[in-house]
Amino acid sequence: MSKYFVTASAVRSAISEFDKKGRERFLSDYGFGKARSYFLIYRRKKYDSKAILGVAIKYSSPNSRALGPYELSGGDAKAATTLRNLGFTVNKLSGGNEGGSKARNPAWSRDELILALDFYLKHRERTPDKRSKAIAELSREVNAVARLLGHAPSATLRNVNGVYMKLMNFRRLDPDVAERGRKGLTRGNKDEAVVWNKFAGDQQHLRQSADAIRARLAEGASDEAGGDEFDEPEVAEAEEGRLVTRLHRWRERSRKLVASKKAAFLKAHGRLYCEACGFDFEQRYGERGAGYIECHHTRPVHTLRAGEKTKLADLAMLCANCHRMVHARAPWLKVMELREILYTRHGR
Ligand SMILES: [Zn+2]
Ligand SMILES: [Zn+2]
Q1: Which of 71, 125, 204, 304 lies 20 to 30 A from 224 at CA?
Q2: Ligand nearest to the CA of 276
């Protein structure tokens, strides 16, 4: 099987078929076995990714049929990539590993590393003992983040050992420790160094980011701002992690908020236009574009707190292009910075 056509909405149709039938019947109807490691995560539920892809092909165009496990080329990893390219979250989970091989925990996310570094720097003089309450608390916290991000719970997921190891890795990166003639562990990954370099010199930013993540955790899994439906391929994850990224996107797409912001802007300016480039959808597209504009939340993400009310003054009106450019790479641009780019390049 080489090429096939599949759309995001077809994947959602396959997901709802899965929900209706239940896992067992869905898999047996199409001849799939249970996934071992790659799971599509949607609205906090787990789906066998390859089976979903095979069935999604059926929904993608009127003349297609579902493809079975042997017709889909490239194995589970390939199916995962296809689904990710459509904007879905696919996680490689250790919990589904039934083959007896050594289960590996998923790589640490930016969010988790921020919590660990914040902890490390708070205890920079002396890292608490592995059996201490403080380490147990950190492990609980990081584990909760990992699960909010869609990782299956397991006995080893962000347990005390894993968390302690991470702290030792930060110690290796700590120039203070090197000066005192001690050495941390020599293992570690690139992300730790990236997070260290970004945040260790700006502890206020780090502390605020960690607080924002903790506030999000305190909301629990029931809060609607946490869903992976807010992970979008065209939005680069903020430097402060995925949870605050989701919170940002959730806030600025709130229908009620967008409607009141538009109304207030219209009242103040007489028409809707992009605050970065001046684009006016109605002027450009006529009736079709009337009332169209996007909202961007201008507060830095590390100052966002779960559950707090968004003020209209924190929102800016942006056209679809400008909004994409703001979020296309981390760090995200301020509206003012985008305006400067446009001004420098085009004189307006
Ligand atoms: Zn614009
Ligand atoms: Zn935005």
Answers
A1: 204
A2: 1
